Amino acid sequence: SCRDYVHYGFKECFIFYKDIHLFKNKIRKEMLSQREGLSEERVISLSKAIAGKVNNLREFKEAKTVFCYISKGKEVYTEDIIMKSLYMNKKVIAPRVDEHKNKIVLHEIKSPGKDLSQGFRGISEPKSHLPVLDNLNKINFAIIPGIAFDRKGRRIGFGKGFFDKLLSKKDLYPILCGIAFDFQITDNIPYFPHDICMDIIV
Fold first, then answer.
1. Cα separation of 180 and 103, whole Å?
2. What is the pLDDT of residue 183?
3. Under-70 pLDDT residues of the chain
4. What residue spans of the chain are helical by DSSP H?
5. Cα 66 to chain center, whole Å?
6. Is the dihedral of CA 195, 171, 175, 113 positive or negative?
7. 41-74, pLDDT tens digit by residue?
8. How far apart are CA 143 and CA 155, in angstroms?
9. In whole angstroms, what separates CA 113 from the centre of its chain?
10. Distance from chain centroid for Cα 177
11. Residue 96 to residues 67, 80, 132, 138: CA-CA distances in angstroms?
C-alpha cells in the first residue's frame, strides 16, 4: 500500500502519498499569506528576537562553522545571525543555487556586503568565485529556512527540493535549526518517511 499514517491539525487520518503534497501546499499557501501580511517593522522586530534566541543557544555558541541561509522578503531576517557569527570568528557558509545542476552549492562568506550578489529568483547569494565547502561534515550548526515547521521538527519548504537534497545527508549535520515566526509553527504537518526533521526550532 502507498498509504502513510500522518497527522494534520487535531485530526488523524490515512491519506495517499499523492495527497500529502496537497496538504503541504495548503499549509504552504496559508503560511505565506500570513507572512506577507506582516509589516516590515514587525518582521524586523520579530527577527531580532529570534536572532537573540539563536545567539544564546549553547549549540550555536560552540559551533566553529555555521551554515545560514540568506533571507529574502519577509522571511526571518538572518543578517544579525550572520554578523554575530562573523563577530565571534566563526566560519560562515551560505547557499547558492546551481540551476543547471539543480542543487545547492555551499560557499564561505566573510563580508556579506562584498561577497553577496543577486542570484536565483532575486535571492542574495554568495558570488560563484568564493571558496566552496565540499566537506559538509565541517558544518557544526545549520540554520534552515522553512515556510512551516511542527513541534516534532518536521519542515515544509518552498517545494523545489533544494534543501531536501542537501538535508538528505543529515548525518553530516550535528545540529539542524529551523527558524520561524510563531504562527509558522504548528502541532503537526503531513510528512513523508524520508523527510528530515530539525533538531531545534526557534
1. 23
2. 95
3. 1-18, 161, 169-173
4. 17-36, 40-55, 58-62, 79-87, 112-115, 162-167
5. 13
6. negative
7. 999 999 999 999 999 999 999 999 999 999 999 9
8. 13
9. 21
10. 8
11. 12, 19, 10, 18
DSSP label at residue 110: S
Among residues 58, 82, 37, the alpha carbon closest in space to that of 200 is found at 58
Burial of 2 (0-12, 13-18, 19+ CB in 10 A): exposed
**Phi and psi dihedrals of 97, rounded to 5?**
-85, 125
Cell representation of residue 134: 565540499
Residue 161 has which C-alpha cell? 527540493
Tell me the per-residue pLDDT of 78-96, one tens digit each, with 9 for 90 and over. Answer: 999 999 999 999 999 999 9
What's the rounded Cα separation, in Å, for the pair 144 and 78?
A: 10
CB atoms within 10 A of CB 156: 22
Q: Which amino acid is residue 196, in one-letter code?
A: I
Check residue 103 and give its pLDDT: 81
Q: Kind of pairing, strands 148-150 and 185-186?
A: parallel
The span from the CA of 102 to the CA of 201, in Å, is 27
